[in-house]
Amino acid sequence: MTTATYKKLNLKAMEGVRTILFQLGDLKKGETCCIVSDTNTANLGNAFFEAASAKKMIAGHFVIPPFKIHGEEPPDYVASRMADADLVIGLTNYSMAHSLARHRACQNGARYLSLPDYSEKVLAHPSLRVDYKKSAKKARRLVGQLTKGKTVRIKTKAGTDIQLQIQGRTGNYCPGYVKTGLQLGSPPDIEINIAPLEDGSEGKVVIDGSIPAPGLGKLRSPVTLTVKNGIITKFGGDPEYCKILEKLFAAHGDKGRVLAEFGIGLNPKAKLCGNMLIDEGCYGTFHFGFGSNATIGGKNSVKIHIDFVFYANSFELDGKNYKI
Predict the structure, then answer these.
(1) pTM of the model
(2) What is the helix (H) or strand (E) element at residue 105, kind and residue range?
(3) Model confidence over 106-116: pLDDT tens digits?
(4) Which of 41, 67, 93, 181 is most solvent-facing, going by the fewest CB within 10 Å?
(5) Considering the domain 11-124 in this protein, what is its CATH number?
(6) Residue 37 is inside which H or E element, if any?
(7) What's CA 49's distance to the chain center, in Å?
(8) How far apart are CA 210 and CA 239, in angstroms?
(9) Cis peptide leading into 268, omega within 30 of 0?
């Protein structure tokens, strides 16, 4: 299903495509691969289709209209193909990781690689070429500790001071690759995350890294979030940034402003650049996701999920300090 306008990628990027399909995606002979792109990322989808077809894999490439924000649902016919696949490559510019279609595909046994905001540059980026298995050891240890915990407190030199309630929630281990029993990955993002109790977060967050969303990206100056009863009540900082954020969240009410995810980046080769997966996986940063968390162990279902990345390297869990 390669389009007639396919432009071949450079050799380094094609090496990245094959790494994703056959190493990180664990695609094997006889399995089916469903590649979903939008009209802006169709050329990347063609490259994945070409690489899979060259190895005689059963592959399909579906090009859909672009989403407006992370967390939207694909057309029903695409969701159906996703659910029937062994491996799904999600290449839409905005992520489907928090969509019900992705969740149902994984429930049906699919392995899902979420690759939003990808480009030829990301495919050739050093952060994609890292020892994922080595980083996974730290991820497994940390996610176990979070799962057993009740209260997280995060304080940073930039001014963040916030407390999250996580009792009863299960941490998620996202090592950047998928295999049997490990169904969601977003290379080069290596992270762990947990969905806090939706009404249990209180404090102030100073975002001094990036906000991978339209019109934002790597920040020139910090953005401040005031969180009460789990919901953003105020944006502070650059008026231009605040205006963009108010507009992004406007259509989703309080549910869109819920502090839905606490994540820790663990990729030592990732550096903040404004790209979603590189930034979220950046070692030495944490991120908070606001909006939907129904697919990661929470109870908030809404068609938006925006991540805010900030520099941090330690947190308190039930009064004990943990350094990353």
Answers:
(1) 0.85
(2) helix 100-107
(3) 999 999 999 99
(4) 181
(5) 3.40.1830.10
(6) strand 32-38
(7) 23
(8) 16
(9) no
Amino acid, res. 286: F
Domain ranges in the chain are: 11-124, 132-323
Neighbours of 251 (CB within 10 A): 12
- Tokens 């996610």, residue located: 143
Looking only at the bridges linking them, the beta strands covering 32-38 and 151-155 are unpaired
**Residue 137 CB-density burial (10 A; 0-12 exposed, 13-18 middle, 19+ buried):** exposed
- Of 205, 193, 313, 208, nearest to 261 by C-alpha is 193
For the chain, what is the total number of helices (H) and then of strands (E)? 9, 19
Place of tokens 């967390």: 71
How would you list the strands of the sheet with 184-185, edge to edge? 58-64, 32-38, 87-90, 111-114, 184-185
- Cα dist. 119→41, 44, 45, 183, 319 in Å? 8, 7, 10, 23, 42
Angle (CA) 99 104 108, round 5°? 150
Residue indicated by tokens 């030495």: 284
Beta bridge partners of 287: 263, 309
Cross-strand partners of 265: 191
Condensed to tens digits (0 to 9), the pLDDT of residues 126-176 reads: 999 998 888 888 888 899 999 999 999 999 999 999 999 999 999 998 889
Specify the 3-state DSSP secondary structure of 276.
Answer: helix
Helices (H), 32-75: 42-54
- Secondary structure of residue 95 in the 3-state scheme: coil
Order of strands across the sheet with 217-218?
A: 172-174, 191-194, 259-265, 285-291, 305-311, 210-211, 217-218
Query: Going by C-beta distance under 8 Å and a sequence separation of 6 or more, which residues neighbour residue 181?
Result: none
